[in-house]
Amino acid sequence: MTSLVVLLTLPLVAALAVLALPERRREPLGLLTVAIGLVAALTLAASVWRSGPVLLTLGGWTPPLGIALRADGLAVALILMSALVMSAVALAARFEMRATRVGPRAAFGFWVLMALLWGALNAVYVSRDLFNLYVGIELLSLAAVALVALSGTAKALAAALRYMIFALVGSVLYLAGVVLTYAAHGVLDIGLLAARMPAESDALALGLMTAGLLAKTALFPFHVWLPTAHAAAPAPASALLSALVPKASFLILIRLWFEAMPDLASSAAVMMLAVLGSIAVIWGGVLALVQSRLKLIVAYSTVAQLGYLFLIFPLAGGGGSVQPWSAGAWTGAMFLALSHGLAKAAMFLAAGICIAAVGSDRLGDLRGLVRHLPMTVAALALAAITLAGLPPSGGFTAKYLLMTSALAAGQWPLALVLVGGGLLAAAYLYRPMAALFAREARIAPRPVPRIWQAVPLTLAASAILLGLFSATPFDLLQIGRPEPAEEGL
Amino acid sequence: MSLTVFALTGAALVGLGVYGLLALPHLLRRVIAFNLTGSGLFLFFGAAGARGGAVDPVPQALIITGIVVALSASALAVGLVVALARSSGKVVLPDEDPAP
Prior knowledge:
- The structure holds two protein chains of two kinds.
- By secondary structure, chain A is mostly helical.
- Chain A contains 22 helices and two strands.
- In chain A, strands 1-2 form a two-stranded antiparallel sheet.
- The model of chain A has no long low-confidence stretch (mean pLDDT 92).
- By secondary structure, chain B is mainly α.
- In chain B, helix 1 packs antiparallel against helix 2 and helix 2 (27-49) packs antiparallel against helix 3 (57-88).
- At the A-B interface, helix 6 and helix 7 of A face helix 1, helix 2 and helix 3 of B.
């Protein structure tokens, strides 16, 4: 329980402390914060593993008056993944976000915004109150928009503002749903809402909240802000934005549909979410295929990978009796969220190293870089294996679980989407790989410290390890799993 | 009766705000439209919380928190609009520019 409190308060305290401290103390404090946060995340995970979900009622007030926080297996898995990504990003930022490289303004802002982003993420992962989730997702969006604008160029500012407009529309829609829910039931706690008397306005409320969260998760057709925003941010910020931020709004969707109001899930509604997800997988993949800059390829790949997550809605519980695992599709989607987070952060950090070495991320300028930056290229290759869903990566475990559920449930169109998306991912990731492994080298790149290069490699390797040792995270995700995850919506 | 008036006014404000947020290209107008939507929602929320004689304190607490959140979002949005206007001389997004 102490570790949960640390995870929620430490980032916020650190954000304030970074504001107050002189410049040379900023970096040590940031590193100390992620180190303590990582230890706290591991402690919390161990405690959930041993004795089940950790419950915390703020100030001792139980819902409906107070706000409940609960760290179940899913929350703690995301907390642990975020802590890993944060640690890696902080280590990379030591090199990449130096005031001499990016200017004092961006170097200063990055540590503050990173800490705020982390605090908001952890709060969203464990909150059980719809309005508390609203506050958390707003803090997250504001920190994310500011990270996009960090470089201060007109292009980055325009990308940030476009993101901001989508985020604002999303938050208005979500808040409208929360207001309708409160007006009908007088409670906002997820556990209490699950036991509510159904009201006529429930479907409208859930629809509004879902639409708002889809805009924030950048599901097709709300994805247009994502690639420009993620490509405009500095690489460590892009890693946070692509790997972690969409997972928070997706988690709220899971909490709403699987825990708060599973009774409202009609087959047409869950199918619509899956169809949008399928279009995102294909459309994001096709657009990634035609980009000529590494960061844009990686950003469009996020659009595609987020689409997979939405296949969970019709697939959860599908053909449960004929599968060797219970809740295969649900666990598969969560596995995808975890492995995508690790691999995508590794890819953006590696792209940042490429930019630091050759001053550009155009594929033409990256030719033959494997001879100068073998560790970075290895990180990109390992991350590509996970994103394309090849064995033995975490992405493979995820796709395998989703695929068996799709086939067992007889949803072969969704199985086709899974196969097609994997092929598209292999195709759009082949192009940067082909450039990096090209024989001729254009220019002599600047040297990059080995420690910096080791950071994305470690992250990409952990995404592979997630697949090699998938039994432990699989069991962790089952702790405190909602019932509809097994039985279907 | 008066509560119905409040709720209907709130609904009208939300409608106006959402229209502005989606249809107006000028960025400052969009920020104002967002605030209009927020105010409409809070008005509706207050009316919904005051039903049945006794006043429910929870919506009031949530409305105050919501106003703080909306204020922070507006501050960041206005800051970005000003920075964009300074660096590009425009107050519309590049691809929505009516006169490029």
